[in-house]
Each structure stands twice: as structure tokens, then as C-alpha cells.
Write a structure and sequence with these properties.
about 190 residues, mainly alpha, 11 helices, about 60% helix
Length: about 190
């Protein structure tokens, strides 16, 4: 239906993540996208201020906000399934692209070109890397929160996610892990002292 894009995006709150895992608290893609955007903002600032970069922070944050919007149509395919082999990964990428086209078609013609690039991976490779790192850091935070709640089901996911982040060799992600991640293991009282 024409002009249903924003009604569709409001459904992000109904799409749960971590479908194969027992969760102490369910996380949806709206929450995850906000956290990813906040972390992307930080990674961009670190990139530009500490590591000599010149990335467009606004474009990166927008890319992060919209990075999972196609999942409104596709649902959140669990990582072990999505990346099982190159054939499945490629097929799922095509499904996500088809979902993005369907979402763009739900916009008025004069707005399509403003939103279409946001529903694809950024053409700027640095933005794409920073958003991907923020996405992984958000997943790592979820694993830490679950572990702190006594849920050991996320232990392997936590180790694998941390290893995947380290393999990115991104100094901004390393700085996040060193400087900001430890606070996620603290209580609210400890965080606000």
C-alpha cells in the first residue's frame, strides 16, 4: 500500500531478535537499531577525532537507524542460519533486497530517493564498517546483559561475537571495548558514581 512506510517501520518493535536463544528479556529490532545508532555515533566520533578520519557522522547514524528495517518483512534470521554457508547468505541478501524494494514502494514517489539508500548497506565502505561494528557491539552488550542476569545460554555467543569484533581490526571498536564496555558489567549505582 502506498504511504505505509512509516506504519511499517513502527512494527520494528514487534520483531524479536535472538529467536534461537532463551532470553531473560526479549529484545526487538527497534531497541537494537537505536542502540546501534548510538554506538555508531560514538564510533564515528572516535574515528574522526582520534583516528584521523573524516566520515559523515549524520549519514552513518542514519544508516544505523535503518540497518534492520527490511527485517520488518523478512523477520530476524538467526546468525547461525544466515551465515551457515555462502549460498544461504547470498539468498538471504536477495530476500533483504526484495524487502527493501517493497518498503521503498510504500513511500510517495517524491520521497523514495531519500529513503532507498538507507535500506541498503552504505556505499561508503567506512560507514558500512562502522555500522557493522556497532551492530556487533550491540549484540555483545546483549550477551553481557544476559550473562549478568544468570543466563548462560549466551556464553558462546558472547565469545564468538567478541572474536568477530576483534577480527574486524577496527581501532574504534577496540576503543569502545576498552573504554566503554566495562561499564555494562556494573549496576546502575556503580555506573552513576
Amino acid at each position: 500500500m502506498k504511504n505505509s512506510f512509516f506504519a511499517l517501520t513502527s512494527r520494528m518493535k514487534y520483531i524479536s531478535r535472538w529467536g534461537l536463544m532463551r532470553n531473560t528479556r526479549t529484545e526487538n529490532i527497534a531497541e537494537h537499531s537505536l542502540e546501534t545508532a548510538i554506538i555508531t555515533h560514538l564510533l564515528c566520533e572516535l574515528h574522526n577525532r582520534r583516528f584521523g578520519g573524516n566520515v559523515d557522522v549524520s549519514q552513518a547514524v542514519l544508516a544505523a537507524v535503518y540497518h534492520d528495517v527490511p527485517e520488518i518483512i523478512t523477520g530476524d534470521l538467526p546468525t547461525p542460519v544466515k551465515y551457515y554457508d555462502p549460498e544461504i547468505k547470498g539468498a538471504y541478501k536477495r530476500v533483504e533486497e526484495a524487502a527493501a524494494v517493497k518498503l521503498v514502494d510504500s513511500l510517495p514517489d517524491d520521497l523514495k530517493d531519500a529513503y532507498e539508500p538507507l535500506l541498503k548497506e552504505s556505499e561508503d565502505p567506512q560507514i558500512a564498517r562502522l555500522v557493522k561494528a556497532a551492530d556487533k557491539l550491540s549484540a555483545l552488550i546483549k550477551c553481557i546483559e544476559e550473562r549478568r542476569s544468570g543466563n548462560t545460554d549466551f556464553a558462546e555467543a558472547e565469545s564468538a561475537t567478541l572474536a568477530a569484533i576483534k577480527q574486524m581490526n577496527l581501532p574504534e571498536a577496540e576503543a569502545f571495548i576498552e573504554e566503554f564496555l566495562p561499564a555494562y558489567g556494573l549496576t546502575l549505582d556503580e555506573q552513576t558514581r
